[in-house]
Amino acid sequence: MRDVAVGARSGQDGEDHRGRSVEDAVPAADDAVTSGSEPAAGAPGNGEPPEEDGPSEGGDGSAPKAKKPRSFWKELPILIGIALVLALLIKTFLVQAFSIPSDSMQNTLQQGDRVLVDKLTPWFGSEPERGEVVVFHDPDNWLAGEPTADPNAIQTFLSWIGLMPSAQEKDLIKRVIGVGGDTIECKGTGPLKVNGKALNEPYVYPGNTPCSMDDQGGQFTVKVPKGMIWVMGDHRQNSRDSRYNQSDKNHGMVPVDEVVGRAIVKAWPINRWGTLPVPDTFDQSGLNNQSSAALSVAPQGVALVGMVPVVLWRRRKHAGAAAERG
Fold this sequence. Notes:
Layout: H1 2-34, H2 72-94, E1 95-99, E2 114-118, E3 133-137, H3 153-160, E4 171-179, E5 183-186, E6 193-194, E7 197-198, E8 220-223, E9 228-232, E10 254-255, E11 259-268, E12 274-275, H4 290-325
Antiparallel strand pairs: 1-2, 2-11, 3-4, 3-11, 4-9, 5-6, 5-8, 6-7, 9-10, 11-12
């Protein structure tokens, strides 16, 4: 009986042991499945919401603060610096303002007018053409004896960045009458002739004659060298232009290299705003001389000469191919 009792107790103990073993094995099986195909606790799909992506908490558990925008007063110097750089670039390469200092270009331009000068096209090899109003550096003391303005500090600064004309630069503004190769002639009171063609000049100041009757330069016949231009003011009897500077080193001519640019717009005062186009009189047929015509057809001539070797090469190629087929 004892043995049976012991056996029974042992069997019970065994059942208890097996029962405990099964119970202990179930969590292990659950762990194995969870780590394999099913999401773990806290992962999406098990009924719990996923963790949101966002700024990680700092060491103290608080989120980092958003960057505070820079104040307007701190950004203002940067904006001013950018504006100054742009103004300098525009003045140097694109457009510059100039003030009309005299009456030599009346009535096209009045004293005190502000004009905008195109400085970009000369960078691409463009040269002044007949009829254009151009600004150029004093070629050889044309402004000798003329009073020079004494600007204040603000005017000097604005001139430096190109928002005001410079009072220190000795520049002039005139109309181009002749370019390299042209022959220009003034006899009596006119008309002014370019390459034998009389110009109809509606821009000449009312009451003036196209040519001046004086022995100081008003009567002339000149031929403009290559790389030079001949300029005259629209107020013919009140302009010390190429006519009255024929005793200088350039014989009254202006080197193309001294040209700052073409005046394209009257910008100020606002009631005088307008463009400065080339007058139609410079578009008349026959105005170009033989030298100018030769220059105008030169590119086509070069192209024709350049095509000759190509044509000869193609003919030889076709002849060789025909010989091989034969």
